[in-house]
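A.,

Following up on our hallway conversation. Structure tokens first:
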């Protein structure tokens, strides 16, 4: 039997006998590449925009921001704890653009399929550094969302081995649940803030004027604006259904249910993308949705040249003891840090 027939027989055997196992090798494969894509969206514009926005002669110079912060805390060590950023080393334009190029290069490396904990940590550190000096220009919620899912990404991949599939470091199901927790808070919080923010979400009239008043309409926005009234109200109902009802399905112990939830989330995000322009907030949400799907779902949409590698590692599901310890510590940290966000969600004055 030649090599081609051997690969074909092994692939067939796996698809017929191993498809009932809940694994997340392909999930991690696509999730890491999605994170790399998001970091690319972050660092590529910085190269062209930093000097005008935050540069030495920009609108809000980083050096002045750091001086004000330092004087407020009397230049103590507490200053660096409250505002951790690499820009304490230097606030020059050359240093900032160099950091952006490094981030851009590392993001391309991750997109190409190579990621380890050190690469993911440095990308997270760069995002943290720019966020803490970005002031008005980095004050959007999705910047912080990227920090959270990027931080989880550090623990998703091996410490040194950057290959796409490493049998020595199987994906942790708990990490996938932590990603779903981020997605739950994002979607459910968005649904609650709509109902609490404006009565048009309860009387189903928001879409009657949404498409003409959103920040950046796109060429299709006028067509959505002139849809029949009953259809526009149906869009509001669909939004409430997806953001307030579907998130509760993420934690049920049935992979098919979470996959169905993921499909609904994708439909909502694609609808927003088609009808408007919200920078990369919808794309980061799409990346957050990837952990809703396990290998059994994703392999149906995965090219054969990727699945050929996946065949041989899908059976490795045992997590090493030291990996379990790290994941347990990470989970404890996330539970502790989730207290205030949860209180914000259920409190009467949601931010």
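Then the amino acids I'd put at each of the 351 positions:
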């Amino acid at each position: 039997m030649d090599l081609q027939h051997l690969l074909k027989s092994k692939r067939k055997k796996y698809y017929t006998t191993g498809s009932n196992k809940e694994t997340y090798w392909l999930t991690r494969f696509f999730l890491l590449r999605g994170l790399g894509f998001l970091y690319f969206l972050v660092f590529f514009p910085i190269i062209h925009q930093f000097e005008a926005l935050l540069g030495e002669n920009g609108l809000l110079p980083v050096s002045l921001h750091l001086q004000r912060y330092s004087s407020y805390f009397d230049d103590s060590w507490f200053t660096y704890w409250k505002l951790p950023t690499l820009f304490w080393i230097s606030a020059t334009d050359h240093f900032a653009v160099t950091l952006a190029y490094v981030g851009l290069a590392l993001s391309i490396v991750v997109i190409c399929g190579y990621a380890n904990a050190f690469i993911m940590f440095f990308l997270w550190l760069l995002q943290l550094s720019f966020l803490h000096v970005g002031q008005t220009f980095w004050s959007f919620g999705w910047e912080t969302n990227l920090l959270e899912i990027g931080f989880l990404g550090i623990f998703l991949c091996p410490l040194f081995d950057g290959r796409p599939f490493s049998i020595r470091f199987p994906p942790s199901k708990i990490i996938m649940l932590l990603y779903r927790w981020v997605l739950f808070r994002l979607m459910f919080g968005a649904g609650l803030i709509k109902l609490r923010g404006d009565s048009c979400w309860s009387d189903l009239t928001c879409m009657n004027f949404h498409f003409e008043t959103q920040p950046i309409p796109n060429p299709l926005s006028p067509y959505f604006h002139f849809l029949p009234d009953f259809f526009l109200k149906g869009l509001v109902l669909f939004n409430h259904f997806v953001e307030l009802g579907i998130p509760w399905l993420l934690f049920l112990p049935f992979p098919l249910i979470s996959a169905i939830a993921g499909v609904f989330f994708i439909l909502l995000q694609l609808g927003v993308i088609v009808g408007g322009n919200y920078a990369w907030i919808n794309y980061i949400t799409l990346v957050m949705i990837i952990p809703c799907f396990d290998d059994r779902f994703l392999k149906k949409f995965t090219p054969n040249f990727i699945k050929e590698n996946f065949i041989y590692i899908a059976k490795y599901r045992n997590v090493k003891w030291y990996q379990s310890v790290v994941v347990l510590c990470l989970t404890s940290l996330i539970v502790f840090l989730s207290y205030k966000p949860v209180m914000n969600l259920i409190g009467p004055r949601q931010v």
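Residues 23 and 348 are 40 Å apart (CA to CA). Curious whether your intuition agrees with the design.

B.
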